[in-house]
Amino acid sequence: MSGLDIEVSVTPEFRDAESSDSESRYVFSYTVTVHNQSPHSVQLMARYWKITQGSGDSQEVRGKGVVGQQPLIGPGQRFRYTSRAILQTPVGVMEGAYTLLNTYTQRAFDVPVSPFRLAVPRQLH
């Protein structure tokens, strides 16, 4: 099993009511769907995110699981969760990886998450 058997999609959304232009606080939620297309169950063990501000500054976030869980995702199943990122600029980029465990072989492998853009809609900025 490789990361090719796992599909990750991300849908970001600007949270206007929680953001403040005057405080340089831009809140985004992002909904991630992890689709296990392999014949074996996998467990999402850890996450890694690199968050890059529009200024070029970046930070890295690592942690166990996602949203307080280390979900088990069966063959053909999807796991979906929503989290958030707070930027100091109206535009940024996130990218990262999940570490998953093949429960059949007990081997861990990483699945990259392609970069996705966080941006305040033009009419709001």
TrEMBL record:
<dbReference type="InterPro" id="IPR007474">
    <property type="entry name" value="ApaG_domain"/>
</dbReference>
<protein>
    <submittedName>
        <fullName>Co2+/Mg2+ efflux protein ApaG</fullName>
    </submittedName>
</protein>
<dbReference type="InterPro" id="IPR036767">
    <property type="entry name" value="ApaG_sf"/>
</dbReference>
<dbReference type="Pfam" id="PF04379">
    <property type="entry name" value="DUF525"/>
</dbReference>
<feature type="domain" description="ApaG">
    <location>
        <begin position="1"/>
        <end position="125"/>
    </location>
</feature>
